[in-house]
Design brief:
Elements: E1 3-15, H1 17-20, H2 24-32, E2 41-53, E3 57-61, H3 68-76, E4 83-88, E5 92-95, H4 108-118, H5 123-137, H6 152-163, E6 170-174, H7 182-197, E7 201-205, H8 209-215, E8 218-223, E9 226-232, H9 233-243
Parallel strand pairs: 3-7, 3-8, 5-6, 6-7
Antiparallel strand pairs: 1-2, 1-4, 8-9
Helix pairs in contact: 4-5, 5-6
Bound molecules: adenosine-5'-triphosphate.
Length: about 240
């Protein structure tokens, strides 16, 4: 089988929440008052190595804060690793932070067109895609509305519809989808099942261990930013359960 994802010695340091609330006035004041503390950094991913082959369904498990979502973001290119490399072959559909890339000031239609242009589609292709995207997201009546005028569920629906309009080679899922209302959730599930049954490579983060056993070939166990174990889904889940 061909290798589609290679994570090679990936480490990522992130600033802690403390530095997040950093602002100049506060910093200057704390220096003047003599209680300035240097921002803290945390090693969120620590020398992660693994390879995923074409068509594999891989689950990522681990305790809260172990780095699962961060690892997905690094694989999708949303975050850059501090060191190490990620190589991805094929079209990737990241179903995480749905809608994070939209421009809230421009219309739903213009956001779809912008996305198509970024992906290098022709005008005709974009038009066809726009119709099927709007239809799936059930947003035909909202095509001229600026994205900031949509509800958060609608934004997620639009994000999902765009990301899955073309069958991706690699599907990246953070937790099993909780997009929109019940009927839309079912529609998303059916679309995901179609990818799952096909040749797509799937990487999924979930706390639902029975889901991982049932739907994944292999699993990765992250523990405080380190890869603790990788192997058959059943084995990794058993070892994880033994440890908690
Ligand atoms: N935006 C951020 N800035 C700084 N640190 C962050 C940020 N997001 C997450 N972290 C930190 O990175 C670490 C890993 O977080 P991550 O969200 O990847 O964990 P997770 O395994 O997905 O957790 P969960 O199971 O709770 O979703 C945590 O220590 C968290 O505090």
């Amino acid at each position: 089988m061909a290798e589609v994802i290679r994570v090679d010695g990936v480490s990522l340091w992130r600033r802690t929440q403390e530095e997040f609330s950093y602002d100049l006035k506060k910093t200057v004041l704390s220096i003047l008052e003599g209680n300035y503390r240097k921002p803290v950094k945390k090693l969120v991913l620590n020398e992660i190595d693994f390879v995923v082959e074409s068509g594999e369904k891989v689950g990522i498990i681990g305790a809260n804060g172990s780095g699962k979502s961060t690892l997905l973001k690094v694989i999708c290119g949303i975050l850059q690793p501090t060191s190490g490399k990620v190589r991805v072959r094929g079209q990737i559909a990241p179903l995480i932070e749905l809608g994070a890339g939209f421009d809230p000031e421009i219309s739903v239609m213009d956001n779809i067109l912008l996305y198509g242009v970024l992906l290098g589609f022709s005008r005709r292709e974009i038009k066809e895609r726009a119709e099927s995207i709007l239809e799936f997201a059930e947003l035909q009546d909202y095509q001229l509305v600026p994205v900031k005028g949509l509800s958060s569920g609608m934004v997620a629906r639009l994000g999902f519809a765009i990301a899955t309009d073309v069958q991706p080679d690699i599907l990246i899922l953070d937790e099993v989808l909780s997009v929109g209302d019940e009927s839309f959730k079912n529609k998303c599930k059916r679309r995901i099942e179609k990818f799952w049954d096909g040749n797509a490579t799937v990487l999924v983060v979930s706390h639902d261990l029975s889901f991982i056993r049932q739907y994944c070939d292999r699993a990765v166990w992250l523990d405080k930013g380190k890869l603790r174990l990788m192997g058959s889904a059943d084995w990794v889940v058993d070892c994880y359960l033994d440890s908690v």
